[in-house]
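Table S2 (text version). Query chain:
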Amino acid sequence: MSQRDLEPTLHTDLADRMTYGGYLQLDKILSAQSPLSSPAHHDEMLFIIQHQTSELWLKLMVHELRAAIEAVRRDDLEPCFKILARVKHILAQLLNQWSVLATLTPTEYAQFRSVLGNASGFQSYQYRLVEFLLGNKDRRMLEVHRHDADAYPILKEALEGPSIYDAFLAFMLRAGLPVPREAVERDLTLPREMDEGVIAVFKTVYEDPHQHWQAYEMAEKLVDVDDQFGQWRYRHLRTVHRIIGMKRGTGGSSGVPFLRQMIDHQFFPELWEVRTRIDELPSSMK
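Corresponding structure-token output:
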């Protein structure tokens, strides 16, 4: 069996130097898996790592969405196209992770589920933060995190601040598009309602994309994210159904019926509705 040569320039004496493990703080990451079942059940490690890696991807998504919102507020949409493309691919990673957890059978999960107590993904403050940054605002969700002195103010700030969609509508208004002021100057802590005036603006954008290219491109990037998020939610539902059937969730929810309520949720409803309103375009615009 052939072996590759070690090139003489490779650093092998790493004493007192920055290393791969040191830079990534792998000592902390790899020691953070502590199964509670006794004796430790083999598959609890899968369950822990699945959710820890999900939280890392959520952390990156928060990082990216905050940067996107700030760029839109500066009237600088170009960076957002790359950022939102990245967010879409982060969601693809989260989506694909469900196939790994789906290898956990109901029998295997039942052997360690009790150690979770009331712990549930519903309590993930980073997931809630992503939802707020994308515009699914719900003040009631703050109460779940009131006990957490670190998470609560972060979530409250996101609840009261503009989502990426709020920032985008305000950008279009500043750019001269007739976005209704009430769609921009509103209580940002409330979920948005479908707005006919906003649909009309997007209809103008979609029927003349060359004239409104930045708004058109941004709209499509947002739809990419919304679509991928919906697929992630659906795969979550199917995986939960596969593993626990119709049992209640550990956090007290109804389980599958609770998750099903959000399957048809849309962060950017006007961007979906405008697809129905777009007329057949003249051949000169095709």
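Notes on Table S2: Residues 144 and 270 are 30 Å apart (CA to CA). DSSP finds 13 helices and no strands in the chain.
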